[in-house]
From TrEMBL:
Taxonomic lineage: Bacteria, Pseudomonadati, Pseudomonadota, Gammaproteobacteria, Cellvibrionales
Protein's UniProt keywords contain Transport: yes
Transmembrane region(s): 26-52, 278-303, 323-344, 351-368, 388-407
Stored InterPro entries: ABC3_permease_C, Lipoprotein-release_system, LolCE_TM, MacB_PCD
Main localization of the protein described in the UniProt heading: membrane
Subcellular location: Cell membrane
Family: Belongs to the ABC-4 integral membrane protein family. LolC/E subfamily.
Biological source species: Microbulbifer elongatus
MacB-like periplasmic core domain segment(s): 31-220
Domain ABC3 transporter permease C-terminal: 281-414
Protein's name according to its UniProt entry: Lipoprotein-releasing ABC transporter permease subunit
This protein's UniProt keywords: Cell membrane, Lipoprotein, Membrane, Transmembrane, Transmembrane helix, Transport
Membrane topology summary: Multi-pass membrane protein
Keyword Transport: yes
Length: 422
């Protein structure tokens, strides 16, 4: 079978085993280190990019799945929020809307106290804008109003753990400086008792801040004024700001205000993107260093093969053929390194979430906590485009790294090299 001479010789050099010579053994050792470094760099970069993709997905699908893309408020107590909800839902770019009443308060159980955001919801409409129902037991929304004398409340797991409270137990909610609702006067605090009907665990920071009650109960806590609004879900969350601003201009009554997710979680989104870029840059530099280790390998091969190069030149090999010979050797090292690294990175991306969870279970520790990080586990989402990009970039760097030693080999003078050998 016909084989191009440069590729044939280069592959023989790359695969040759000459353990009886010290120089050849050293070259083989350095070549192995270069390949291992390239394998680890490519695998690590694929895994890191998959983890960053996972954090981005969790923000979009889990955190912003529970929280709305935007919320509009108005302090006017005479607004018909059902009508406003229908108008918002019909606006261009908005897929669903639900009325909500938000109150900032304190939860107290015994001596334990923690702040929380109480959301009063309509169970029939909240499921259209939030995935919170996916984390609740069937019938939890109905349990909020089963007993008017003992209203129910749904807590995040972080709040329940801090208060050391479980389902079926009593909880006190305090709203400091709440409006009394009679003439605008204000009381020192509004206090209400609730029965915990469910505890949700979303694995996000919302577990430590969010509590859900019925709309009427939230209105009572707020004293009948302030905190009422409409939550909405957008067709395109990245265009939420422009859609929201357009909506404010369409609403008939003045005094509407609010925010979209870029105001509430925009910093988190930017932090994830910045971290992804910085970590990717650092790991890319690791790949570059590993790829350019090929330079030292090929330089030693060129020194070791001076005699062989001279013989090839005297037999008629051209400068281009000598150059391609050593490019072929470096390309083989780079190709094996990036392909094996890509496969290991692919496998690592698929198992990293379960592997970290297994380590947490084995050692009884938690690496990520949702009160510090966006989620309490390590997410991963593999994108084939990222794998192709990393593998392609690693191989390209390997090829670039071969140029200098290959050029040095092509400039070897046969007479001088043979005189040194003999």
């Amino acid at each position: 079978m016909f084989k191009p001479l440069p590729a044939f010789i280069g592959l023989r050099y790359a695969g040759a085993q000459r353990s009886d010579e010290d120089s050849a053994g050293l070259v083989s050792f350095i070549s192995g280190l270069s390949m291992i470094g390239l394998i680890l760099g490519v695998a690590l970069m694929v895994i890191v990019m998959s983890v960053m993709n996972g954090f981005d997905r969790e923000l979009r699908e889990r955190i912003l799945g529970i929280m709305p893309h935007a919320t509009v408020y108005n302090t006017n107590p005479d607004i018909n929020w059902t009508a406003v909800r229908d108008q918002v839902a019909a606006a261009e770019g908005i897929t669903a809307a639900a009325e909500v009443w938000q109150v900032n308060g304190l939860a107290k159980n015994g001596l334990e106290v923690t702040p929380l955001l109480v959301q009063g919801v309509n169970p029939e409409t909240i499921v259209n804008v939030s995935t919170i129902g996916d984390f609740l037991q069937p019938g939890s929304f109905d349990a909020l109003t089963d007993n008017p004398a003992e209203p129910g409340i749904i807590l995040g797991k972080g709040i329940a753990d801090k208060l050391e409270i479980g389902v079926g137990e009593q909880l006190s909610v305090i709203v400091p400086q709440s409006a009394s609702g009679n003439g605008g006067g204000r009381s020192a605090a509004q206090l209400a008792g609730f029965k915990v009907v469910d505890v949700f665990h979303s694995g996000t920071a919302l577990d430590h801040s969010l509590a859900i009650v019925d709309w009427a109960q939230a209105r009572t806590l707020a004293g009948g004024a302030g905190g009422a609004g409409v939550q909405m879900r957008m067709q395109d969350m990245l265009r939420s700001f422009s859609v929201f601003q357009s909506l404010l201009q369409q609403l008939p009554v003045e005094g509407y205000y609010g925010n979209d997710w870029t105001g509430t979680h925009g910093n988190l989104y930017q932090a994830i993107q910045m971290s992804r870029n910085l970590v990717s840059l650092l790991v890319f530099l690791i790949i570059a260093i590993a790829a350019f280790n090929v330079v030292s390998t090929l330089v030693m091969v060129v020194i070791d093969k001076h005699g062989d190069i001279a013989i090839l030149r005297t037999m008629g090999a051209s400068t281009k053929e000598i150059l391609l010979t050593f490019v072929s050797q470096g390309a083989l090292v780079g190709l094996i390194g990036v392909l094996v690294g890509g496969v290991l990175g692919l496998l690592g991306s698929l198992v990293v979430t379960d592997a970290v969870a297994g380590l947490e279970s084995l050692f009884g520790i938690q690496f990520l906590k949702s009160d510090v990080y966006p989620v309490d586990y390590l997410p991963s989402e593999l994108h084939w485009g990222d794998v192709a990009l990393v593998v392609g970039a690693g191989f390209l760097l390997s090829l670039i790294a071969t140029l200098y030693p290959a050029l040095q080999a092509s400039r070897v003078q046969p007479a001088a090299a043979l005189r040194q050998d003999f």
